Every structure is written in structure tokens, then in C-alpha cells.
Amino acid sequence: MTAIAVGVAIAIGAGYWIAHLQNAGNPVPLITESQAQSDSAAPADGERKILYYRNPMGLPDTSPVPKKDSMGMDYIPVYADDQPDDSGAVVVSPARIQTLGVKTAEVELRTVDAAVRASGRIEFDERRQVVVAPRFEGWIERLHVNAVGDPVRKGQPLFTAYSPELQSTGEELRIAERLASQSAAQDPIASESARRLAEATRARLRNLQVAGQAGARQVFHAPASGVVLEKEAIEGGRFMPGDALFRIADLSKVWIIADVYEQDLARVQVGQSAQVALEAYPGRSFAARVDYLYPTLDAATRSTRVRLELDNPEGLLRPGMFAQIALAAGDATPRVAVPSSAIIDDGERRVVLIALGEGRFKPQPVKLGQRGRDVVEVLDGVAAGDRVVVSANFLIDSESQLKAALSNLVEPDAGDQPQASPTRYEAQGTFDALDAEGGSVTMTHGEIPALQWPAMTMDFKIADPALVKSIAPGSPVRFVFEAGEPGEYIITGIEPVAGTAPAPSAGGHGGH
After folding, report:
1. Is 287 helix (H, G, I), strand (E, B) or coil?
2. How many domains does the chain have?
3. Residue 498 exposed, middle or buried by CB count within 10 Å (0-12, 13-18, 19+)
4. 300 and 340 share a domain?
5. 232 and 175 inside one domain
6. Whole-model pTM?
7. How does 139-166 read in b/e, with b if 16+ C-beta sit within 10 Å?
8. What are the residues facing 344 on neighbouring strands?
9. How far apart are CA 218 and CA 292, in angstroms?
10. Buried-exposed string 99-138: b where 16+ CB fall within 10 A, e elsewhere
11. What is the pLDDT of residues 377-420, one digit of tens each?
12. Which residues form the domain of 480?
């Protein structure tokens, strides 16, 4: 037995000695735990380089290796190519592009519909209105036109009136004419006086607008064709000199009074043609012409009134109707143009986001020219063939947040200072409850890819409890929130979503 043990020991020693000789020229290094982690993190050829992993809830906590937070959520990798390059371009991951709703369009050479558009209203042509107002006192014995809106023709009888003044004036004219005729042979001087009296009486009747009717009863006729707009005449009623008994308007031509903004005035001229659309006649347009530009500007609306004239032979255009006017302007020369939605205007400069490919976007200042219905001419900044962002509502929700919109395209580096404008996020879910005293709400939301959050129920701070005053618990909602203090998220806007199913219930993650 002792001999066997000694033999085994000799065999083991011999094996160790042989192995030592084989590895003497190529020693095996000792692999430490940190080196193993470093090797596992090293990217293979073609893979993106990971700088670090950040806390999924926005807490100031990073890790050089993958890990999970206390709720079991994976830390989010931050890649080296997520940073802006020297040209100012930024890289957006495909998941974020889908979340933000980014769409692009090609810059094209196209005709810019530069028509000046304005809203207006149809009104009477003031030059085609007449008033029937007797110049003497009398009574209306009979009405021949009885209602407002009745059409009348020029010369058509309106009413018959009795006037003692006309009766006495007519009698005076007959006496003067008889004396002038009878005394012409015996007394030329008396005849001449009677003739002059008759001529003065006729002039008085002409001034009373009843020349040729010297009797006590006079028939008044319509001085123009048109429609009765006002009727104060009542059969049997008394009228005094100057009373407006009828107002008649000719509607064969009407006006449109439109409000043109100050910035478009240079493109509006007298005689310019226009097309008019009315809600009463969809699909039909009416030709009009600019007749006059009023000399004053409304300081409140920064607009000037423009008068257009158009024919109304069918009587379809009624005063008081609202109209949409397109004034012809510009030419058919193709121009470099982008969709209007591509322009971001912060009040100081105008910018488009150029899509460079592979998720890279570059803010590019542009100089604009003519504005059309759907497109804007670009004089400088982009060329035909470039692609620009035309839909990124999450980023560009108002001009006042332009800087935040551009900076939100990339994730911040570890240790970066907070942005001047907080990052905003959109989500859908269900409003569960309000804690008015604590200033928070409980929400059940779906996945939020921008933060790599799964569907869950959690608490949010709320900027104003009045935002949910009219929303019942359990209602499907769409809401906007932004990051506050580390680990804190604040809802700044919320609205019900009709017909939307509530977000799926998930494990709670309250207190954030």
C-alpha cells in the first residue's frame, strides 16, 4: 500500500514538472475580475461604443457596467456616437425618432402659391343705394310696395300721397298760367308778371320733386331698380319733409370688405384680380377685383381694409355673408421651397432641421422668401435634394421652446449641468387619483420609449391641480410631463382622450 501511494505521488510530480516545462516560454496571465468586466464591455468591430449606463429614472447615478435599479429596471446605455459632432449635427436613435414622430420631406424646386389670403364679408355697394324721402308734408293714402325685401324696378309706383301744400302750389300754378294767357293782349306788363309767377311755381314743384304733378295727390315712383331694404311708409300714416320712407339697394354688384395684414399690403394693388369662396356654395368660386385700399390701419389687428367689387347677376351673394379671398400674386417660376411645417421660428432666426441620414440631424439657419399656402421659398440655407424634418411635434411644440427642442435630440452626458429648458415627454395612460394636498397624481401609463420605461403605475407631481379638475378618475388621458429634481417628474399638461382604452396595468412605481 505504501508503495502504491509513493508511485502516485511520483506520477503527480512528474506531470506538474512536464506542464511547467511546456508553458515556460508562454506563461498564462492571471485574469482579474475588473479585467474580465472590461473585456466584456469592449465593443466588437462595427458595434457602437458604450460610454456608461445611466439611471432609468433620471437619478444622478451611473454605472460602467450593466445593472438594474431597485425596481428591477435596466440602466440605459449611453453611446459615444450620441454626442454632437463638430458640424453641430446630433444623432437620434431609431427608437427616439419613432417616439418623437419625426418625418422628413425633400427640398424641391416648385411653384410657390404666393396668393394673399384674407377673410372678408359681403356688403352693399354704397353707390347703388337710394332713399325715397319726400320734401313736403303729407299723408300716405295707398301703398303699392308693402314689404321689405320686395324687388322693384325703376319707375315702379311705391305709394300715393296727399299733400295740402302740393294742392295749394298746383292751384297757384294754374291761376298764374291763366292770367298770363288772358292778359297777354290787353296788359303786357300784367301778363309778364303772371308768366314769371308761373315759372317760379314750376321751379318750386321741381324742387319738391313732383314736377308734372300739380294735383293734391302725388304718386311716388322708385328712382332705381333693386331690393327694398327699409320701409317706414305705412298706409294712412303722416310724413314730414325729409322722412326716409323707403331705402332701395341695387344688388347686381356688391362689395367685399376684407382685412389684409400689414405684412401683405405691398402685394395688394388696385385692379388686382381675386377669387372668392363662400361657405354657402362649396366648390364654387366668384371672380372679384380690388377696387380700393383704405388709407388707415387697425392698430389692434395690424390689418388694413381692402374693398373688392364683384358682379352678382344671379343674386346669390347676400350682404352679411363671410367670404374667403385669394388675391393673385407672384409668378409661376419654380423656386427652392420647403413645407411650411419645416420652419422653426424663434422670433430671432428661422431654422430647419436637415436630415443627414443614419439618424443624424443638423439645425440649419435659412433665409425665407415668398410664403405660399403649403410651402415657403428658401433663398439661402438649403438646396434642392436636401431632406428636412417636417413633423416633430414633441420637440417643436412652441416657438418659445426652440432651444430646448434642439437640445432634446441627444441624451445629456454624465455630470452635465441641467438644461435651461427642461426636457418634455408625451405619454398616454389612465388618470387614477389626485392627491391635492401633496400636489401629485397617480397615473397608469404605457411604455415610454424616450425614457425606456415599461408600462406601470406611478406618481407624478402636477404643476396645477386645476389641470385635472374636470377629469374623472379612470379616464383615458394624454399628458405631457417634464423632469424636475432628480427622480421627480412634473405633469404640465393633460387632456382626456375620447374612445381610447386605458393603458395596461403594471407593477407600481410610486413616489417619483
Report:
1. strand
2. 5
3. exposed
4. no
5. yes
6. 0.46
7. ebeebebeeeeeebeeeeebbebebeeb
8. 351
9. 41
10. bbebebbebeebebbbbbbbebebebbeebebebbbebeb
11. 899 988 898 998 887 534 533 333 444 444 554 444 444 444 44
12. 424-496
